[in-house]
Design a protein that fits this description.
The chain is mostly beta strands. It contains two helices and eight strands.
């Protein structure tokens, strides 16, 4: 019983905890997402750390399954996941990244891009352009 510790309860009694036993009850949180990037209005120089991926999740507010795209990025030495809707036009953020990928031999990972974030109709608007060869 080396891995037990006594914890004082409200009734001033002690209850033994077996760490090994309790550990098997814990659910391990596995999440391959980095913190989400939540940009403000501005201009950002970003390095793409992965390829664009499709994923889905259940929206906690609506309970509905939503299909999205995501890509891992680096911004000023911090790593994030950039998530976006799967747009239907080249003007969408997703469409702009797909267009850059198709013009870059099907490869986004390692590319440097510039993202201009603006406010349009009370929503963020993104203009994405390739910046390969340029530094921050």
């Amino acid at each position: 019983m080396e891995d037990e510790i006594k914890i004082k309860t409200e009734e001033d009694e002690f209850e033994s905890i077996n760490y090994s036993e309790e550990n098997t009850k814990l659910v391990e949180y596995k999440n391959d997402l980095l913190p989400f990037w939540k940009p403000e209005i501005g201009v950002y120089n970003i390095k793409l750390l992965s390829e664009l991926k499709k994923w889905s999740y259940t929206n906690s507010e609506t309970g509905e399954k939503e299909n999205r795209a995501r890509i891992d990025i680096e911004l000023k030495e911090e790593k994030f996941t950039w998530s976006m809707g799967i747009g239907k036009t080249i003007a969408s953020t997703y469409g702009q990244l797909v267009d850059i990928g198709s013009k870059s031999n099907g490869n986004l990972e390692g590319s440097n891009i510039q993202v201009i974030v603006d406010l349009k109709d009370n929503k963020n608007s993104y203009v994405v352009s390739l910046r390969d060869g340029l530094s921050d």
